[in-house]
């Protein structure tokens, strides 16, 4: 009799889960396992909002497993000794997991695989990307640094994959291992500020798939244009579900292609929707090939950029949504109340912080990582570096978003702003935190100090 431990991480689903699927096909008994191994010194550690989401996602996954006679085993601590102890206690012969791609986790998993090999077979799979980061390279075998040629190469390589089905059975072991109660893992805050935030969401695998199927026929065709208007329900809002693996990008592309076959008139919008999934793919690609970008700019010239030294006051006003620019403040308050922010607004608030206020992009990335329920390390780093002008783009630093013009263009009736800033018409609303024209010229002047070094 063979027993497999399926170590779940950012793949909290039963369908299209390669590690779980292959374990069920190979072994007689399955132990689904989640370890809270946050690598506390790592930037990949989840922020407070994401940990609240994780609590509910694990709860949903355990409910789904119990409905078919198994259950989720929860542990907390360093992964290797926990796995070794569990192997010894259960006689497990195999360990399966799906790969994660941040630098610290890659190093940890490589070490764990080597350490476990003498005692059991270890198998790892791709469950969170359309293709592995090392599969799509330029003709000279070097990685891409610009999205458009990367995406063209991805399409040529192929992005359509048939998702794996739900396993016919997930057989429980004769003796279930000990499991910690979910509440003891401490994912929820002691002061339950998360209750209002999570009221905006339905969590779990079924909710993720339902959200995709609701989006495709109602908003998919208009996605290319509607996605830019924060007051409209023009986006899929799948990002937190993708981050925790409640749905896979392969499932998203597969079902989008199926819908497109039935509704070819929606092609313009849905092709762009799949391209946005490609941006997530590109973020992981860059993180894998350039792991230093977690903390340092992809463009090495920005190692010498003269960021502001003292920015405590302006940072606090930005975080609280008190900058005096309505669309900025609306976005920051949406973030605080829902754990999410519309992507167009993310770019605007990031531009103000890094270019008009000269606060280092790492500071904004850290704030987003703590407050977003979809705080995916790869996408968060890519987005902040793209806006700051130091990441994957051809000539990005000259792109400085004017929040007033952005507001007029993408929230012309003020619907989004009124939703989050009820005091806008009163005397309580602050004056602008910075002069846009002067701060733009200052930012470009500082960029000119480093551009000749490249």
Automatic annotation (TrEMBL):
<dbReference type="Pfam" id="PF00875">
    <property type="entry name" value="DNA_photolyase"/>
</dbReference>
<keyword id="KW-0285">Flavoprotein</keyword>
<dbReference type="InterPro" id="IPR002081">
    <property type="entry name" value="Cryptochrome/DNA_photolyase_1"/>
</dbReference>
<dbReference type="InterPro" id="IPR036155">
    <property type="entry name" value="Crypto/Photolyase_N_sf"/>
</dbReference>
<keyword id="KW-0456">Lyase</keyword>
<dbReference type="InterPro" id="IPR018394">
    <property type="entry name" value="DNA_photolyase_1_CS_C"/>
</dbReference>
<dbReference type="GO" id="GO:0003904">
    <property type="term" value="F:deoxyribodipyrimidine photo-lyase activity"/>
</dbReference>
<feature type="domain" description="Photolyase/cryptochrome alpha/beta">
    <location>
        <begin position="2"/>
        <end position="130"/>
    </location>
</feature>
<keyword id="KW-0157">Chromophore</keyword>
<keyword id="KW-0274">FAD</keyword>
<dbReference type="InterPro" id="IPR006050">
    <property type="entry name" value="DNA_photolyase_N"/>
</dbReference>
<protein>
    <submittedName>
        <fullName>Deoxyribodipyrimidine photo-lyase</fullName>
        <ecNumber>4.1.99.3</ecNumber>
    </submittedName>
</protein>
<comment type="similarity">
    <text>Belongs to the DNA photolyase class-1 family.</text>
</comment>
<dbReference type="InterPro" id="IPR036134">
    <property type="entry name" value="Crypto/Photolyase_FAD-like_sf"/>
</dbReference>
<dbReference type="InterPro" id="IPR014729">
    <property type="entry name" value="Rossmann-like_a/b/a_fold"/>
</dbReference>
<comment type="similarity">
    <text>Belongs to the DNA photolyase family.</text>
</comment>
<dbReference type="InterPro" id="IPR005101">
    <property type="entry name" value="Cryptochr/Photolyase_FAD-bd"/>
</dbReference>
<dbReference type="Pfam" id="PF03441">
    <property type="entry name" value="FAD_binding_7"/>
</dbReference>
């Amino acid at each position: 009799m063979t027993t497999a431990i399926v170590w779940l991480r950012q793949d909290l689903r039963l369908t299209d889960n390669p590690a779980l699927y292959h374990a069920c096909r190979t072994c007689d008994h399955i132990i689904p396992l989640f370890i809270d191994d946050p690598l506390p010194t790592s930037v990949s550690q989840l922020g407070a909002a994401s940990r609240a989401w994780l609590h509910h996602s694990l709860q949903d996954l355990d409910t789904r497993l119990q409905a078919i006679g198994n259950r989720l085993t929860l542990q907390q601590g360093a992964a290797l000794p926990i796995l070794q102890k569990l192997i010894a206690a259960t006689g497990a012969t195999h360990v399966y997991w799906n790969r994660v791609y941040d630098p610290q986790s890659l190093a940890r998993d490589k070490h764990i695989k080597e350490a476990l090999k003498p005692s059991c077979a270890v198998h790892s799979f791709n469950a969170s990307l359309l293709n592995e980061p090392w599969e799509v390279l330029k003709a000279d075998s070097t990685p891409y640094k610009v999205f458009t040629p990367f995406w063209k190469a991805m399409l040529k390589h192929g992005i359509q994959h048939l998702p794996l089905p739900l396993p016919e059975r997930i057989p429980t072991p004769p003796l279930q291992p000990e499991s910690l109660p979910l509440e003891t893992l401490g994912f929820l805050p002691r002061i339950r500020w998360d209750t209002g935030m999570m009221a905006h969401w339905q969590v779990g695998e079924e909710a993720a798939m339902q959200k995709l199927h609701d989006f495709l026929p109602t908003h998919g065709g208009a996605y290319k244009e509607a996605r830019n208007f924060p007051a409209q329900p023009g986006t899929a809002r799948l990002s937190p579900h993708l981050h925790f693996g409640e749905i896979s990008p392969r499932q998203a592309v597969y079902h989008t292609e199926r819908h497109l076959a039935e509704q070819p008139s929606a092609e313009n919008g849905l092709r762009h929707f799949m391209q946005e999934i490609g941006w997530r793919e590109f973020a992981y690609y860059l993180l894998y090939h350039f792991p230093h970008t977690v903390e340092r700019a992809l463009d090495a010239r920005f190692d010498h950029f003269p960021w502001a030294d003292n920015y405590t006051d302006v940072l606090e006003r930005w975080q609280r949504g008190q900058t005096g620019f309505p669309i900025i403040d609306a976005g920051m308050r949406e973030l605080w109340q829902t754990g999410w922010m519309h992507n167009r607004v993310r770019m605007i608030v990031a531009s103000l912080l890094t270019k008009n206020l000269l606060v280092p992009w790492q500071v904004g990335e850290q704030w987003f990582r703590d407050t977003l329920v979809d705080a995916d390390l790869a996408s968060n780093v890519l987005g902040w570096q793209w806006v700051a002008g130091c990441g994957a783009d051809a000539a990005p630093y000259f792109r400085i978003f004017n929040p007033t013009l952005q507001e007029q263009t993408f929230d012309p009736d003020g619907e989004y702003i009124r939703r989050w800033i009820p005091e806008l018409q009163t005397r309580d609303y602050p004056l602008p935190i910075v002069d846009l024209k002067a701060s733009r010229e200052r930012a470009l002047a500082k960029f000119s100090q480093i551009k000749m070094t490249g």
